[in-house]
Amino acid sequence: MTQEEKDIYLKFGLAGSMVLFGFDGEDLKVLIHQKKDEPFKGAYLLPGRYIKTDEAIDPVIKELMHHHTGAEYAYMEQLKAFPKVFRNPEGRIINISYYALVKIDEEMLQKTEKRKGIWVNYDEIPDLAYDHNEIVEYAKERLKRRVKRRPIGFFLLPKLFTIGELQKLYEKSLNKELDKRNFRKKIFKSELIIPTEHTKPGPRKDSVLYKFDEDKYEKLTLKGYDFLF
Amino acid sequence: MTQEEKDIYLKFGLAGSMVLFGFDGEDLKVLIHQKKDEPFKGAYLLPGRYIKTDEAIDPVIKELMHHHTGAEYAYMEQLKAFPKVFRNPEGRIINISYYALVKIDEEMLQKTEKRKGIWVNYDEIPDLAYDHNEIVEYAKERLKRRVKRRPIGFFLLPKLFTIGELQKLYEKSLNKELDKRNFRKKIFKSELIIPTEHTKPGPRKDSVLYKFDEDKYEKLTLKGYDFLF
DNA sequence: CCAAAAGTGTTCGGAATACACCCATGA
DNA sequence: TCATGGGTGTATTCCGAACACTTTTGG
Q: Is the pTM of this model over 0.90?
């Protein structure tokens, strides 16, 4: 590239955004917040920021997640690039979006609140700035497919969880109701979860807490397992 | 953004690349060519080019495809962004990659030859410049998944095709052998293909030519059909 | 004693898989 | 006449889907 060409071509900006899905045992949620500066001050939008030319984007997204939630690790994957010409009034900014999965617990709730984060319900996403609604839609589609074929639902649950919680999670992300008996049959057949000694006090009857068999999970993901809900 | 910030942030380049899969009735292939200028002159790489800040990328990719193959339409989808910091010595260039599916006929072979394109076998991709091997790997994974669930194989076949060709295509892209009888059963059950009056002279026995039921395809894609090989 | 969630088996139909031989024809 | 690819049917197994009652316990 000549200097002239560089002047023409090296004029893009790069932003990274994150669709953070969280599950609290009851509902599937997405983290958004309100923009603090112009343009679009006050508008809702996804967590994200501009990237510098010497920065890798993956660590930025991890850092974003840590900053907003306090979580160290999570399932995380790039969605795709959103490269429309007029998506951002500041210039031609390419957005590369990721999605991540976390379990929402008390600690995280406090953290996100401190950071002015807002957990909105999976199917009640408000109007967002830029093309962020489009990004969320794309992320939801991806999540639905992934949940069907890989046991990534486990990333959204605490270490110990009940079958009821697991089923609710699947129902929310697939957006349909599942039969309790068939659900149990399928989950147990996969042998991905192990019952523990512990129980969770329910409003009436207690329920058994399960944990996730990580070894088995590793093996299954390696050979491209199909979970198939 | 202040001017100062723009100087820091708006320094990225954007390139679009395309993994073009083609099927000639026998083998599944990928189009590559050789770089004509420095850096990496002579190296193999994917079709692609730099994007200007006022250009949308989708049309550029379509234009690329048309330029290299002469084809007007094809199945086409963004893969994802490849945003590594040091992938390109010219600067921080973000690559957004697409893949597309075409049928290779005589006419296209002439066109690609004229454009110095090289059709290499699906499982014999040579070393490519930049991170293009990584892009091709990603595209192959995507193609495998898509072929399993959507009848996109039809984009890779001529208007009239034999069951044998269709089966070969599936075998190549899934990289496994399929049982002839079971394959036919499944394909016919889907009712996506219609027999025609025509036959194709085989080396021995002639074989019936089929065409693709486009109306049925439309309906099935609308309601999120699962083909499932 | 009742409301609410936990837990538990069976039946049926459809699909996937495995498997072997005849046919037509050009060489 | 034989080598090559086209074409065809059945039996078994497995999985998904539909479906209803009992158990526990706090209020």
A: yes
